[in-house]
From TrEMBL:
SUPFAM superfamilies: Class I glutamine amidotransferase-like (SSF52317). It comes from Flavobacterium hercynium. The lineage of its organism: Bacteria, Pseudomonadati, Bacteroidota, Flavobacteriia, Flavobacteriales. InterPro entries: Class_I_gatase-like (IPR029062), DJ-1/PfpI (IPR002818), Prot/Nucl_acid_deglycase (IPR050325). CDD domains: GATase1_Hsp31_like. This is Type 1 glutamine amidotransferase domain-containing protein. Transmembrane segments: none annotated. Belongs to the peptidase C56 family. HSP31-like subfamily.
Length: 226
Protein backbone atom coordinates (compact mmCIF):
# COMPACT_ATOMS: atom_id res chain seq x y z
CA UNK A 1 0.00 0.00 0.00
CA UNK A 2 1.41 3.38 -1.01
CA UNK A 3 1.99 5.88 1.76
CA UNK A 4 -0.45 8.78 2.05
CA UNK A 5 0.71 12.36 2.54
CA UNK A 6 -1.51 15.26 3.58
CA UNK A 7 -0.12 18.68 2.68
CA UNK A 8 -1.75 21.36 4.85
CA UNK A 9 -1.61 24.87 3.39
CA UNK A 10 -2.50 28.34 4.57
CA UNK A 11 -5.40 30.33 3.15
CA UNK A 12 -3.85 33.75 3.81
CA UNK A 13 -2.94 36.03 0.91
CA UNK A 14 -1.76 39.17 2.73
CA UNK A 15 0.30 39.89 5.84
CA UNK A 16 1.31 42.84 7.97
CA UNK A 17 0.42 46.51 8.23
CA UNK A 18 1.13 47.11 4.54
CA UNK A 19 -0.88 44.11 3.34
CA UNK A 20 2.12 42.48 1.70
CA UNK A 21 0.89 39.91 -0.82
CA UNK A 22 1.73 36.37 0.14
CA UNK A 23 0.72 32.74 -0.08
CA UNK A 24 2.42 29.35 -0.04
CA UNK A 25 5.98 29.79 -1.37
CA UNK A 26 6.06 27.86 -4.64
CA UNK A 27 9.27 25.80 -4.24
CA UNK A 28 8.35 24.89 -0.67
CA UNK A 29 5.35 22.96 -1.92
CA UNK A 30 6.55 22.04 -5.43
CA UNK A 31 9.87 20.47 -4.47
CA UNK A 32 8.42 18.21 -1.74
CA UNK A 33 5.50 17.36 -4.01
CA UNK A 34 7.99 16.15 -6.63
CA UNK A 35 9.79 13.97 -4.06
CA UNK A 36 6.56 12.44 -2.75
CA UNK A 37 5.33 11.87 -6.29
CA UNK A 38 8.60 10.17 -7.26
CA UNK A 39 8.16 7.88 -4.25
CA UNK A 40 4.71 6.94 -5.61
CA UNK A 41 2.95 8.31 -2.56
CA UNK A 42 -0.69 9.40 -2.58
CA UNK A 43 -0.80 13.18 -2.03
CA UNK A 44 -3.81 15.20 -0.86
CA UNK A 45 -4.16 18.86 0.07
CA UNK A 46 -6.12 20.47 2.88
CA UNK A 47 -6.41 24.11 3.87
CA UNK A 48 -7.69 25.68 7.05
CA UNK A 49 -10.84 27.18 5.54
CA UNK A 50 -11.33 25.08 2.42
CA UNK A 51 -11.11 28.18 0.24
CA UNK A 52 -8.70 28.16 -2.71
CA UNK A 53 -5.17 28.75 -1.37
CA UNK A 54 -2.69 31.19 -2.86
CA UNK A 55 0.81 30.74 -4.28
CA UNK A 56 3.74 33.11 -3.84
CA UNK A 57 7.05 33.27 -5.77
CA UNK A 58 5.56 32.51 -9.17
CA UNK A 59 8.62 34.30 -10.56
CA UNK A 60 10.48 31.04 -9.81
CA UNK A 61 8.36 29.07 -12.27
CA UNK A 62 11.31 28.34 -14.55
CA UNK A 63 12.69 25.87 -11.97
CA UNK A 64 11.90 22.36 -13.34
CA UNK A 65 10.09 21.09 -10.23
CA UNK A 66 8.18 24.34 -9.85
CA UNK A 67 7.12 24.29 -13.49
CA UNK A 68 6.09 20.63 -13.25
CA UNK A 69 3.97 21.48 -10.20
CA UNK A 70 2.28 24.41 -11.93
CA UNK A 71 1.56 22.60 -15.19
CA UNK A 72 0.96 19.11 -13.81
CA UNK A 73 -1.39 17.73 -11.18
CA UNK A 74 0.16 19.57 -8.24
CA UNK A 75 -1.34 23.04 -8.51
CA UNK A 76 -4.57 21.65 -9.91
CA UNK A 77 -4.93 19.45 -6.83
CA UNK A 78 -3.85 22.20 -4.42
CA UNK A 79 -6.54 24.53 -5.78
CA UNK A 80 -9.10 21.90 -4.76
CA UNK A 81 -7.72 21.60 -1.22
CA UNK A 82 -10.49 20.46 1.12
CA UNK A 83 -11.29 22.01 4.46
CA UNK A 84 -9.08 20.51 7.15
CA UNK A 85 -12.04 19.90 9.47
CA UNK A 86 -13.53 17.47 6.93
CA UNK A 87 -10.40 15.30 6.72
CA UNK A 88 -9.77 12.09 8.67
CA UNK A 89 -6.09 12.82 9.21
CA UNK A 90 -5.60 9.47 10.96
CA UNK A 91 -5.61 7.83 7.53
CA UNK A 92 -2.39 9.62 6.53
CA UNK A 93 1.14 8.42 7.14
CA UNK A 94 2.49 11.98 7.22
CA UNK A 95 1.47 15.60 7.23
CA UNK A 96 3.59 18.32 5.67
CA UNK A 97 3.26 22.09 6.07
CA UNK A 98 5.01 24.30 3.49
CA UNK A 99 5.92 27.88 4.26
CA UNK A 100 5.73 31.25 2.69
CA UNK A 101 4.69 34.14 4.88
CA UNK A 102 1.05 33.04 4.74
CA UNK A 103 1.23 30.48 7.61
CA UNK A 104 2.36 33.27 9.95
CA UNK A 105 -1.12 34.76 9.50
CA UNK A 106 -3.51 31.87 10.08
CA UNK A 107 -1.50 29.04 11.66
CA UNK A 108 0.00 30.30 14.96
CA UNK A 109 -3.17 29.77 17.01
CA UNK A 110 -5.46 27.59 14.88
CA UNK A 111 -6.86 25.08 17.37
CA UNK A 112 -7.79 22.39 14.86
CA UNK A 113 -4.35 22.52 13.25
CA UNK A 114 -2.71 22.18 16.66
CA UNK A 115 -4.91 19.16 17.40
CA UNK A 116 -4.05 17.58 14.05
CA UNK A 117 -0.30 18.09 14.57
CA UNK A 118 -0.49 16.73 18.13
CA UNK A 119 -2.44 13.62 17.15
CA UNK A 120 -0.30 12.95 14.08
CA UNK A 121 2.89 13.23 16.10
CA UNK A 122 1.62 11.14 19.01
CA UNK A 123 0.54 8.22 16.79
CA UNK A 124 4.09 8.23 15.42
CA UNK A 125 3.15 9.37 11.93
CA UNK A 126 5.59 11.82 10.36
CA UNK A 127 5.24 15.58 10.79
CA UNK A 128 7.20 17.78 8.38
CA UNK A 129 7.38 21.55 7.90
CA UNK A 130 9.68 24.02 6.17
CA UNK A 131 10.65 27.70 6.44
CA UNK A 132 7.66 29.51 8.04
CA UNK A 133 5.71 26.22 8.03
CA UNK A 134 7.05 25.25 11.49
CA UNK A 135 4.77 27.94 12.90
CA UNK A 136 2.28 25.06 12.73
CA UNK A 137 4.29 23.43 15.56
CA UNK A 138 4.09 26.51 17.75
CA UNK A 139 1.66 26.25 20.68
CA UNK A 140 1.10 22.51 20.11
CA UNK A 141 0.81 20.79 23.48
CA UNK A 142 1.19 17.04 23.81
CA UNK A 143 -0.97 14.83 26.02
CA UNK A 144 1.56 15.21 28.86
CA UNK A 145 1.08 18.99 28.80
CA UNK A 146 4.49 19.84 27.37
CA UNK A 147 5.05 21.77 24.17
CA UNK A 148 5.73 19.53 21.20
CA UNK A 149 8.89 21.47 20.32
CA UNK A 150 10.27 21.35 23.86
CA UNK A 151 13.63 19.58 23.74
CA UNK A 152 13.32 18.83 20.01
CA UNK A 153 16.06 19.53 17.49
CA UNK A 154 14.38 21.73 14.91
CA UNK A 155 14.92 24.58 12.50
CA UNK A 156 12.80 27.13 10.65
CA UNK A 157 13.25 30.45 8.89
CA UNK A 158 15.71 32.16 11.18
CA UNK A 159 15.49 35.55 12.86
CA UNK A 160 18.54 36.66 10.88
CA UNK A 161 16.94 35.64 7.60
CA UNK A 162 13.71 37.40 8.57
CA UNK A 163 15.53 40.64 9.29
CA UNK A 164 16.60 40.69 5.67
CA UNK A 165 13.25 39.60 4.28
CA UNK A 166 10.01 40.49 6.03
CA UNK A 167 10.77 41.92 9.46
CA UNK A 168 8.25 44.73 8.91
CA UNK A 169 5.50 42.30 7.96
CA UNK A 170 5.60 39.34 10.34
CA UNK A 171 3.76 39.47 13.68
CA UNK A 172 6.69 37.82 15.51
CA UNK A 173 10.02 36.13 14.88
CA UNK A 174 9.54 32.39 14.45
CA UNK A 175 12.96 31.23 15.67
CA UNK A 176 12.52 33.25 18.86
CA UNK A 177 8.99 31.92 19.44
CA UNK A 178 10.00 28.28 18.95
CA UNK A 179 13.02 28.70 21.22
CA UNK A 180 10.82 30.19 23.95
CA UNK A 181 8.79 26.96 23.91
CA UNK A 182 11.93 24.91 24.50
CA UNK A 183 13.07 24.03 20.98
CA UNK A 184 16.73 23.20 20.45
CA UNK A 185 17.06 25.46 17.45
CA UNK A 186 19.70 24.84 14.79
CA UNK A 187 20.50 27.59 12.27
CA UNK A 188 22.72 27.25 9.22
CA UNK A 189 24.03 29.99 6.95
CA UNK A 190 21.33 32.28 5.59
CA UNK A 191 19.38 30.75 2.70
CA UNK A 192 21.45 27.55 2.67
CA UNK A 193 19.84 24.11 2.44
CA UNK A 194 19.37 22.83 6.00
CA UNK A 195 16.93 20.22 7.30
CA UNK A 196 16.75 18.20 10.50
CA UNK A 197 14.97 15.00 11.53
CA UNK A 198 14.34 14.37 15.22
CA UNK A 199 12.39 11.15 15.53
CA UNK A 200 9.25 11.53 13.44
CA UNK A 201 9.56 15.34 13.30
CA UNK A 202 11.30 16.89 10.27
CA UNK A 203 11.92 20.61 9.77
CA UNK A 204 13.71 22.78 7.21
CA UNK A 205 15.12 26.28 7.41
CA UNK A 206 14.14 28.00 4.16
CA UNK A 207 13.05 27.41 0.54
CA UNK A 208 16.34 25.70 -0.33
CA UNK A 209 15.61 23.17 2.42
CA UNK A 210 12.22 21.95 1.18
CA UNK A 211 13.56 19.08 -0.92
CA UNK A 212 15.69 17.87 1.99
CA UNK A 213 12.70 17.85 4.33
CA UNK A 214 10.76 15.64 1.93
CA UNK A 215 13.76 13.35 1.46
CA UNK A 216 14.13 12.90 5.22
CA UNK A 217 10.39 12.27 5.59
CA UNK A 218 10.57 9.59 2.90
CA UNK A 219 13.51 7.87 4.66
CA UNK A 220 11.45 7.66 7.85
CA UNK A 221 8.34 6.46 6.01
CA UNK A 222 10.26 3.79 4.10
CA UNK A 223 11.95 2.56 7.27
CA UNK A 224 8.49 2.12 8.79
CA UNK A 225 7.61 -0.32 6.00
CA UNK A 226 10.29 -2.79 7.11
Amino acid sequence: MNKKILIIVSNANAIGPNNRRTGTFLPEVAHPYAEFENANYHIDFASLTGDTPYLDALSLANDPSNLAFLTGKGWETMQKAVKLSTVDVSKYDAVFVPGGLAPMVDMPENELLKKVIKETYERNAVVGAVCHGPVSLLNVKLSNGSYLVNGKNITSFTDEEERGYAIADVPFLLETALTKQGAKFHAAANWSAHSIADGNLVTGQNPASAKGVAEKMIVILEAAKK
